[in-house]
Design a protein that fits this description.
Rossmann fold, 6 strands, about 25% helix
């Protein structure tokens, strides 16, 4: 069992309309993570642990978009429906919103890249990160690896992630890579 103590934080990665069915860059079954993440959110809120929500917050001419040399269709453009969090996701008033990828010329797959996430976690004396969301093989993977590189203990919420799988098996390989780097894969039933 894994105890959620005073030094734990939940990080919900990029559960935005554009990454869910009907969005510009839908992750297959991306919306299926919402009810599972909401259980984690309720649990962490009850434990008094901070909750962070990362989001892609791209300018309309972002480097990751195909017409500007990237590999993706335009998605999560600032102040559009696509950039909003999934409407059923329980984002609360006291939660932290971390915007990434807001500079035209920087990719930013990780919630730590070009943001103040690390500073905020350190100010709160956080040592353990519990990470889920979208997509397993991109922003979740890079956020998990970023957290490990910065010295946090990282738990991957295996039941609360979905991948893009541009190439078949990408998500499974991403999970292997995260675990090999030191992340611990858990599911909701493992929480104490």
């Amino acid at each position: 069992m894994v105890k959620v103590g005073k030094q734990a934080a939940l990080i919900v990665v990029d559960v935005q309309n554009d990454f869910c069915p009907g969005g510009a860059l839908p992750v297959p079954e991306g919306d299926k993570v919402v009810p599972v993440l909401n259980r984690y959110i309720d649990f962490f809120r009850a434990a008094g642990a901070p909750i962070f929500f990362t989001r892609d917050w791209h300018p309309k001419d972002h480097i990751s978009f195909k017409e500007y040399g990237g590999i993706w269709p335009p998605h999560c453009i600032q102040n559009t429906w696509g950039a909003e969090f999934h409407p059923a996701l329980k984002v609360g008033k006291g939660d932290f919103i971390i915007s990434k990828g807001f500079e035209r010329s920087k990719e930013a797959y990780s919630g730590f890249e070009g943001t103040d996430l690390d500073d905020r976690l350190k100010r709160l004396n956080i040592k353990e990160l519990f990470i889920g969301g979208l997509a397993t093989d991109y922003c979740v993977k890079h956020t998990v690896l970023g957290g490990l590189k910065k010295g946090y203990s990282v738990y991957l919420l295996g039941d609360a992630v979905r991948g893009v799988d541009v190439n078949e098996g990408d998500s499974l390989r991403a999970i292997e890579e995260m675990v090999k780097a030191g992340a611990v894969k858990i599911s909701f039933k493992d929480l104490e």
